Amino acid sequence: MNINWYPGHMKKTKESIKKNLSLVDIVYEVIDARIPFSSQNPEIDGILGRKSRIIILNKSDLADMESNKKWQDYFGKKGISSVIVDCINNRGLEEVIKLSYRLTGERRRHLAKKGIKNRPIRVMIVGVPNVGKSTLINSLSKRKGTKVGNKPGVTRVNQWIRLKGDLELLDTPGILWPKFEDKEVGLNLAFTGAIKDELLDIENLAIKLVERLNAMSKAFIEERYDILVENKAPHDIILEIGKKRGCIVKGGEIDFSKASNIILDEFRKGIIGRITLELPVL
Fold this sequence. Notes:
Blueprint: H1 8-20, E1 26-32, H2 44-48, E2 53-58, H3 65-77, E3 81-84, H4 93-103, H5 105-113, E4 121-126, H6 133-141, E5 159-162, E6 167-171, H7 183-191, H8 202-216, H9 219-225, H10 234-244, H11 256-268
Parallel strand pairs: 1-2, 1-4, 2-3, 4-6
Antiparallel strand pairs: 5-6
Helix pairs in contact: 8-10, 8-11, 10-11
């Protein structure tokens, strides 16, 4: 699949991150726990340099639990702090706050010696679209002031958000990168909704997803849709799912597009199962 994008606002966001990095004490890099490698912008390491960082493995409720732990161990071995988080259900947020205090302790002590006391810990939120940055901010601030949407690309301008206590957050729009060197990365981002569906061939994307799920475990499709997938092509599996779900159009034909959307939607919502699409290479 040919995935083309990199809107102008993403280039501006990259420049804004560089410009505002000196204003913050720590960076929260939010990634999707189902695709930790693919949802990490490879340019972020170079942009952040030695700035203190916490990787937030969000949407952990949609990912395999054991895989979450493997990724956390992986980042730990690289010397990067990480927290397994489920923003929707407010899991892991207290750990994020405690870790923020610990990682910024030296910085705060240095400011105190200069007479600057009780200054909020300033945090920048970064991450690719649709990994849950706005939901994280809303959960931490216990308010609904940050614009949140089901589609990627909702946040477009920097926003400072003051929290109760000693945290102050600078939000940034999702930032992707100009070119996918690895086609699997592009597919993983498309599977999880980080790329707008309007830019994609949904039917081919659903076929690719069925291929991937069957390669991991045939039980994913068979148990969810009560069908057998052995020796069946992904196209035929989607037609069978469409028949089961009543995706019938005039003349008795299966609405392949509707069936494709059902599969993608149920994967993204975790209805098919808690699925991690990639594991760390240790």
